[in-house]
Amino acid sequence: MAMDNRSRMQRVLALLPVLLPQAMLGSIMLMQRQWVAALVSFTGIVSYIWMNLSQHVTHERFGESSGHGQRNGCAITDSSIIGNNARITAETDVLDAPHPPCCNLMDIMWSQNDSHQSSLAMTHPKSRETKLLWQTIVHSWLKDDGRDTCAHTTRVPLGTIGENQLFHVDLVSQGPHALMAGTTGSGKSAMLQSWCLALAMRSPPDQLNLVLLDFKGGAGLDVLQGLPHTVGCVSDLQLQHAQRALLGLERELRNRELLVSQYGVADVMDIDVPPPRLIIVIDEANALCQQIPEAMKRLSRVASLGRSLGMNLIMCTQNPASQLSTEIKANMALRICLRVQDPLQALEMIGRPTAAHISPTTPGMGLFNDGASITLFRSAYTKDCNHLITNVRYAASFLNHATQKALFTSPLPPMCNTQKQAEAAGNDADTRTSESQNSEEHSTNARSASSKPYTAVIGLEDDGVRYRICSLRLSGNVAIIGSPGRGKTTILRNIQHALAQKPTVNCTFITADCATLPSVTPGSKQVWLVDDADELCNPSTMLPLHEEFNQAIRNPDLYVIFAVDSPNHFRLHEYCPTRIIFPSGEMSLDILSGISPTTVKSFAPDDLTRVGRAVVIAPGIEHTIQCSTAYKY
User: Fold this and answer.
1) Tally of CB atoms within 10 A around 608
2) What is the pTM of this model?
3) Helix (H, G, I), strand (E, B) or coil at 423
4) Quick one: how many helices (H) and strands (E) in the chain?
5) I need a surface site. Which of 173, 247, 517, 544 has the fewest CB within 10 A?
6) Is the bond preceding residue 100 a cis peptide, omega within 30 degrees?
7) At what angle do helices 188-202 and 133-142 cross, to 10 degrees?
8) How confident is the model over 110-114, as a mean pLDDT?
9) Strands, DSSP E only, in 46-192?
10) Which pLDDT tens digit goes with each residue over 136-156?
């Protein structure tokens, strides 16, 4: 009874700081005969008292009708709600639930693979399983349990709940996107590692791919780059590479939209042979937003359209309240909140402040909210990532799974020393290139070079997302423009060497000090390689070969590939559909040569003086290239 009286007194005292100023204000208004203002003031006092009385009555009635609760501000704990599953409601103190034990990912994966039951067996797999690890992974990939494979490839165990049960998460059915929050040391990166490894063990590389954006210096996700499922991995130490990754994701999104439209389906997974499900994992999304501000706008399209296109996001951040856009958070149905510093962050994530009270001595413990319930869990740790990745690679090799083609590549290398090195580097990049390429990309693709007699590999080309072999297609005259020492003569020599391997091509190398030009045989295709052709192109020159050179440029039976320092004396667009231009750094001169302003602005300062760095321009094509800087083998 004394407790009830004390509680009532506390409520009355809590009303005084609000009611006294209002009463004083109303009295002053009465003395000044401002009747309307006084009426408004006293009406507010009455409304505030009525609201508090209503809340008090509701609280008293709730306490009387609750047979299993506790009154007077204490948490109401329902053992039937908590149980071993640690399921909680708005009245349950989650920290009173049984704390889940810490476990190894390999142990719970084996439990899942053996019985598909929720019971957790904390024993080493070798004590129960005579198969090698990679053999069990193969068995998991090949197993047919009669369900739709594409719909269940993302259901994996991630830890424990209660005292002896597994904690499963299905990103597709419970998501399709997940948002994870937690302060430093709460176990975010370790949980992301376990999640990616569990997905890799659950699904083969031809059904599921991973893109990893690690903006924590590569310390968390870089180790997963060796998985055969990984089609791209970048960190905040490679901002240019990260920007290419975002462009690659946009291109993949566009390609999948075209697939859905082409096959007339609502979901890309309804296609007979669908593309692999693509899961984009982002660690420290706050750093991504700060260093690449346009990233959130690009990722919001993935969040809004990804469900039907087989693209899922797992984003991890320290402060979801202020660092993520509302468009992103609106599509993040699956919320995971590890230990946070501010209760408001926990409220933002799961609607409860409890995650702010998780002990720092229990990393990996958190709350999981899928919209239907809130679960206390503890994520599994991975004891030896490299050992597990090695066995996943063994399983992929045993089943003869081809290496998945990269969604994006690193930027062009600063140097390409020989043509053979260009072929080796280009082939390595091209084996990890997206299958859906547009017609412009096919025109310079080295895989078709062998079927075209007039082609020459001159280095590597980059379309802003991937680089591959630059195979120059000779379908007309080619102008090579650039200052001395940039590599014009080397390109001519590389073309000469490539055409020398084709017996049907008559190729002649010509220098500026030649006395005569070769004769042209009507009806036969010939190629002239002309170095230092500035004087031959100059209309005011006194050279006797000027007119003959101009006639050769207009001859349809002759391909003229010539190098000049400046485009001032020639109508390039009319007679040279293909041009190789070395940027000079002068925007007006580069634009006059044919480079677009966007490409000019994209060059780094080093690119403007780098030997071999140029732009190839052809009808419908404008790609940056790194030319081979040597032609002797």
Assistant:
1) 15
2) 0.73
3) helix
4) 24, 20
5) 544
6) no
7) 70
8) 51
9) 87-88, 155-161, 165-170, 178-181
10) 888 888 875 444 444 447 889
